[in-house]
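Q: I'm writing up a methods section and want to include an example of the input and output format. Could you take the sequence below and give the corresponding predicted structure tokens, formatted cleanly so I can copy it straight into the document?
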Amino acid sequence: MNKGTYTVVSNERIAAAGIWKMILRATSSGPASDFDDFRPGQFVNLALKGHYLRRPISVCDWDCGGRTLTLVYRVVGAGTKDMSCYTVGTEMDVLTGLGNGFTLEGRKPLLVGGGVGLPPMLALAKAFLERGIRPIVAAGFADKDAVILEKEFAGLGLGLHIATMDGSAGAKGTVMNVIDRLDYDYIYACGPKPMLKALSTLEVPAQLSVEERMGCGYGVCMGCTCKTADGFKRVCKDGPVFKKEVLVW
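A: Here is the clean output for your methods example:
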């Protein structure tokens, strides 16, 4: 874990369903080692003015040379609502390098995102491409107004297999209706618990990134524990990524 000061470079809404993308740049006071240590699936914890608890946000992407982080978040409460009003130049206190990320396995990986669980899959896709492995990417959304990151994945030469609950974009139904026709040997996923539970029933190995409400974000408060086959584990410290066989639903 590292602590540093970051400055807002941009902060814009990218979907009508209240989804925003923020780019932060490390200032001279930020630790230089951050960007060498990032792993897809890790998260940052943001201090927001006027709010006691930090807000954990998964890292969508980062640029070592430019020393920037890209975060995608949904406005769901007072904290993220205030965050959406942050303007260019706003300074933020940020804890980085939090949690255990994904490990790269499989020759035909399937990356699955549910809603705002899709952003960390962008960094993971880039990591696979750097190894010469072309992943398949699928995503589930409520409707067309919630669809995000199509252009970003297209820029990597990857199509996005989309499902929406109302059928307004892609296939109608859940992401499970899309992946049954895809060819893969390993699953990586981040999103709502029902989606992760359904994916865990498939007969392929999987790494699943789970969500829980967090207090500290680095394992001290024990507020984000989840039940596993090895006892209760802290999502912020032992996760958020777990192998599917470890999780108890």
